[in-house]
Amino acid sequence: MCRFFVLLFFASTVFAFSTYPDDEISGEYKEAIISIGDRAASELVGTLKKELKKALSEGGPVGAVSVCSERAQALTKQVSRSIGSGIDVKRTTFRYRNPKNAPDRYEALALGYFEGLIKQGKDLPPYLIQKVNLGDRVYYRYYKPIRVESLCLLCHGNPESMQSELLEKLRELYPEDRATGYSEGDFRGLVRVSIPESVLSK
């Protein structure tokens, strides 16, 4: 059975995190967080992959990059709405292509946690749960790691092997692109699902 991790943050500017055993969250909350998080992450990844394959078949890698730049954020919001009121879904990574996917401070700690495990040669857990206090509200953030698949390498692999037309389109759409140079199986980032505690307590 996979160990269940919870990150708890203290203070607004100086904060740290620690891990807690399963009994730090009630079984009812835990099951609901995992259920909602898994469903949201799977739906987002599946939706984006379907859109990517369609764009590739219609316009090749250059067309796919254009479609992703126009549709990915809208599709992510669509998935958030379909999962439930108050729930927010996002993809985040340190090596982002779209600045809208850049991590906030809490997401950065979660990313750092996973990257730390990779540096230690440890297996990644299937998910991470983070408890965040924002003002007088409590949120649970469910994180699902994303691995690079072979399909992703068309636009996220070695720039030296990419078509010049594709590179030009990437520079046009994403002048601050950080998302190339990956190999299949690399850690790409996280799907983050934010769930208000008020949703869980209903």
Q: What structural keywords apply?
A:
5 helices; alpha+beta; five-stranded mixed β-sheet; 202 residues
What does this structure look like?
Strands 1-3-4-5-2 form a five-stranded mixed beta sheet. Strand 3 and strand 4 (137-147) form a beta hairpin. It has helices at residues 27-83, 105-119, 153-156, 164-173, 197-200, and strands at 6-8, 88-92, 128-134, 137-147, 187-196. Helix 1 crosses helix 4. The longest helix is centred in the N-terminal third of the chain and has 57 residues, at 27-83. By secondary structure, it is α+β, with helices and mostly antiparallel strands. The protein has five helices and five strands, in the order βαβαββααβα.
> Separation of termini?
28 Å
Main β-sheet description? 5 strands, mixed
Widest sheet: strand order? Answer: 1-3-4-5-2
CA gyration radius, whole angstroms: 18 Å
Total DSSP helices: 5
- Overall mean confidence score, pLDDT: 87
TL;DR?
It is built from 5 helices and 5 strands, in the order βαβαββααβα.
Question: Which helices and strands, and how do they pair?
Answer:
Elements: E1 6-8, H1 27-83, E2 88-92, H2 105-119, E3 128-134, E4 137-147, H3 153-156, H4 164-173, E5 187-196, H5 197-200
Parallel strand pairs: 1-3
Antiparallel strand pairs: 2-5, 3-4, 4-5
Helix pairs in contact: 1-4
